[in-house]
Write a structure and sequence with these properties.
Layout: H1 2-27, H2 37-46, E1 57-66, E2 72-75, E3 89-92, H3 114-120, E4 128-134, E5 150-158, E6 160-169, E7 173-179, E8 192-194, H4 202-205, E9 206-207, E10 219-224, E11 228-233, E12 246-250, E13 253-257, E14 262-266, E15 270-275, E16 282-289, E17 292-303, E18 307-314, E19 317-324, E20 326-330, E21 332-336, E22 338-343, H5 348-356, E23 369-379
Antiparallel strand pairs: 1-2, 1-3, 1-23, 4-23, 5-6, 5-8, 6-7, 7-22, 8-9, 10-11, 11-21, 12-13, 14-15, 15-20, 16-17, 17-18, 18-19
Length: 382
Amino acid sequence: MKEEKKRNLVAVLLVIIIAVVLSLVILLQTDAEGKSILDNIIENLFGEEKTIAAGDLADVNYIGRYASNNTVFDSSYKYVENKTDGVPLKIFVSFNKSELPPQGYESYSSEIIDGLLEGLIGLKEGATTTIGPIPPGKAYGDKKLEIGDTFTTGNLAMVLNQTVQVTAFTDENLSLKWIDMENLGKFTMPQLIIKNLSSTDISEMVIYPPPYYLWENSSEIINITDETVIVNNTPTKSENITEIITGIQYNEKTMFIFPDATTAVWNNTTITISSSPELGKNYTFTQESPYGSINLTFTVENITNDIINISFVYEGEKSYQESVKTLEFNRIFIMPRLYNNIPGMYMYIFQEDIEKAGYSTHELAGEELIFEVTIEKVYKSS
């Protein structure tokens, strides 16, 4: 009787051992990502639930529709009807557009509309849902820029703030007209004015006025036509024009303004500036740059009847530059009012100014939108 019970106990133990071994074999089998079934069970029971939070990254398939008529305007799928093929959008869930994604996820971007980002937070990996309707203010802007709209920009005549009116606007180009300059008063003439950005010739793209900008608030509008603004310029001082040595260029002539050795005279029609520095004198120059301070020493090397030759050392290399002694230019200058056919590729120059005025150049501006999204993968920022 005892022997029979012993044999039965051994048999039961063998069955248990075999069951345990088979279970371990099954649990240790790996999936397509190399994880064992045991790992997945433990992760599901005790692991971090993959729910999107700010700072996370996600692969998202989407279908974007107009809320007004449910028409599809964009999708990550190649075949929208079947929701197949295509490439998921790689999203860095951050409302700080200047924040960079974590190292190793450089292909992920936060350049996504706020309404969609807000809707993603709290969604779990594998979820499919609809986000929206998203109001225009959290999508691509409340109001699309149109003909007749106005905004202020300092990017047409650097850096004079001009109020401009839209005279033409398409995907290909933008045309603007300078308005409301009657009460501008005295201003500092810009160093550069846009002329024709559709040209490939740099001399046609921009205008370089005479160096009226050496004197702050020395320019004043005296006449306005439909296409031009006529400006009179009166220097505010004849000596000590600048505090540091300053290089200017006008009509292919280079001239250096010396803080203690350049004077200006003018009459009803012209302004003349003349330099007469001391031979061998040194002038120091400091300029801040993204790479730190640039410190230069200029030395007056030679002086003739018309030319001043100066030298400077930069990064251990000595260079020479000729400067004219005298430069004459008119007091009257004609500024353009019309900035026609600015190519779409330069639209970014005015983007911030346009948005500050409450407009958007995006084709979806003013539209309520709906997004059907599927969260394919979530990567926790931690």
